[in-house]
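I have been asked to look over a protein record a colleague put together. Thanks in advance; the entry in question is below.
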Amino acid sequence: MSKKSIVSVGLLSLFLAILGACSTPSPTSPPPTATPAPTATPARALVYGDISDDPGEVIEGAQPFITYLASQLGDFGITEGQVRVVSDADEMAALLKSGAVDIYCDSVYPATLISDATGAEIILRRWRFGVETYHSIIFASKTSGVTGLKDLSGQLIALDNPFSTSGYVLPAVTLLDNGLKMTGKASYEEAVAADEVGFVFSYDDVNTLQWVLSGLAAAGATDDYYYEVQFPADAREKLIVLAETESVPRQVVVARPGIEPALLAAIKQAMITAHETAEGQTALEPFQTTRFDEFPEGIEAAQGRMREMMELVQSIPLP
């Protein structure tokens, strides 16, 4: 081997040794880590909640729209819509607060109660049964001898339930505004003092109608839609309207506390525009909803009036 070859072999051996030393990790150095791949938005469901004693009916009506709504929210990892039905407001408040329910719809009184208790946000109006607002009708049987609100002193009125906007709060406020004293009764058999209007909860508009027609209660209250559409025509012919209350939003949409602002904005936009497409209209129909929209006077004004009414009814002794 020539001297030149020996030198070349020596240099190559030295280069390989240096290269090996550089490529071998130090025993005290941590091994190199790979750059993590970006993670996709985790898949999840949009959950709609409702309060009812008939879960099957609610799910049948609400599922098409919640499925449609979820289909508009794919950018947020929403892959399906679910409907969850509970039996009372306390359960709904707990689910909203825990994040197990994302949105729910109700009349403005229970919605405000739940919003105040949980930090949930009222975000939109729901046009249920094709109307954006509604009111209550206080009525009596033509054979009762009651022809005006003042005649209800010493009498009994049938109301729906203590969480009903149209079946309790609106008629109660109207009676209070007319200077009448209200006292809850556990049964229509309880005595009513001459200086008070006794009220009993029927827990169903059909019960209210029957109690009035049968004379178990001198008067009753229901919302204008139920009175004009659901009450049979022959039954209405036997009734006299004593008063119509002020109007409030028909229903409102409530969003859980802590919902991501971008997702909340997307939910609102999808709900507001749903009626503008054939697909959205098809989904809204079984949900008994024409459209959703913003509050023309602002949500603060709508809730402010409801809170005034809430303060009034808080003074009424319940059964």
